[in-house]
Amino acid sequence: RLEQRDPQVIRALSEILIKAGERKILEDLVERFAQLKHENQVEALIPSLSSSLKILEQGDKMPEPLLKSFEKIEVSERPLPSVQPAEPVEEPGEIEEPDLPVPEEVSAKSPPEKGDDAEEPGDLDLADDEEGDSELPGLLSLGDLGDSGSAEDRPARKPVRDKPKVSLHYRAGLKAYNVGKYKKALAEFSSLLETEASPPANVYLYMGLMLCEQESYDQARDYLQNFLGKEPNHSKANFVLGKVYKQLKFWNGLIEVYERFVCGEIEASPKMKTKIYHDLGLACVLVGKYERGAQLLDSLLKLHPEDAEVGYYLALAHFHLNKISSASQILHQASKSAIGNKRISKLIEALAAKVRSGGI
């Protein structure tokens, strides 16, 4: 539930659990807070931490279950370890540190801005999957600092293995991809696929992502399916393939892919989860799986009650399940949120007419 976006929902859950004596929720909040990197995620947890601390500041006036949970804490005293006097260490001489190999891959990424619906492919790990990365020279141990022996007595440093040669087309394509020059990247990767018998698997992923951005959905599907044949659990590739299936109106394919996310077979980010629930719920309703679609969309509507499209398809599912009363209530709320959205407004009006006539 800490993946939840709404700060007020997180705060309410935290307060309820802490007042009930579940102190572990505070530990979870602190641990989660320490792991967050983005400012908006940090701000989402601040109200929860603040309210939790206010409850703890009440001292003896804290809720009884919480007070009892503190009474159960047992602290066992352990003998302090004896302090050993430090042994004298010889002054270290100047030791030449090993040189680190300079990475040859392009590190700077500055992908162009995309629309709200587009996931930025720049979030992916763009390093090639080929074996043969340079090994770092062995680092000196602390014991070597006091070694006064001659350099001849010391073991020779481990030699650095040379990296295998990488195709110029691959380097050029990767560089263009990283800076958002998709036309050049597509040309370079296409040349690579034509000239190499065993190109890096990531090339198929990059081609699929770029072609999806350019709305070439049939080609994007083929490249992504090729890549997933080698990496079936790749989160980003599966997510984008679901988006491609949506554009191609291949609803059963979308359901098959996105159900793997929902059941936990493939991990998804919080941002991806919202989109997955949305598209999976709509797809289930469109293929007649009304119970499953209603289950998914009901969960989503509780988090985003202002989403008129979710409200419409949830009402449609209830209508087909012969839950006319609930369908009417959902449509009434969705019509308020659909102001300014002509497409959804027309769909709501048409469904509302059927609901008023009792499904005739």
Please provide a written account of the structure.
With 360 residues, this protein is mostly helical. Among the domains are: 1-69, no CATH class; 269-360, Tetratricopeptide repeat domain (Serine Threonine Protein Phosphatase 5, Tetratricopeptide repeat), CATH 1.25.40. The chain is built from 15 helices and no strands. It has helices at 7-19, 24-35, 39-56, 64-71, 168-178, 182-195, 202-213, 217-228, 235-247, 251-262, 270-286, 290-303, 308-320, 324-337, 342-356. Helix 5 (168-178) packs antiparallel against helix 6 (182-195) and helix 11 (270-286) runs parallel beside helix 13. It is flat. The relative contact order is 0.05. Mean pLDDT is 76; it is low at 74-78 and 83-151.
Mind telling me the CATH class of the domain at 269-360? Mainly Alpha
Order of helices and strands: HHHHHHHHHHHHHHH
**Poorly predicted runs:** 74-78, 83-151
SS field, number of helical segments: 15
The percent range for helix content is: 55-70%
Given helix and strand content, the structural type is mainly alpha
What Rg do the Cα atoms give?
Answer: 29 Å
- Give the percentage of residues in beta strands: under 5%
Global shape: flat
How far apart, in Å, are the first and last alpha carbons? 41 Å
CATH topology name of the domain at 269-360, in short, is: Serine Threonine Protein Phosphatase 5, Tetratricopeptide repeat
CATH homologous superfamily annotation of the domain at 269-360: Tetratricopeptide repeat domain
**Total DSSP E strands:** 0
On the 0-100 scale, what is the average pLDDT?
Answer: 76
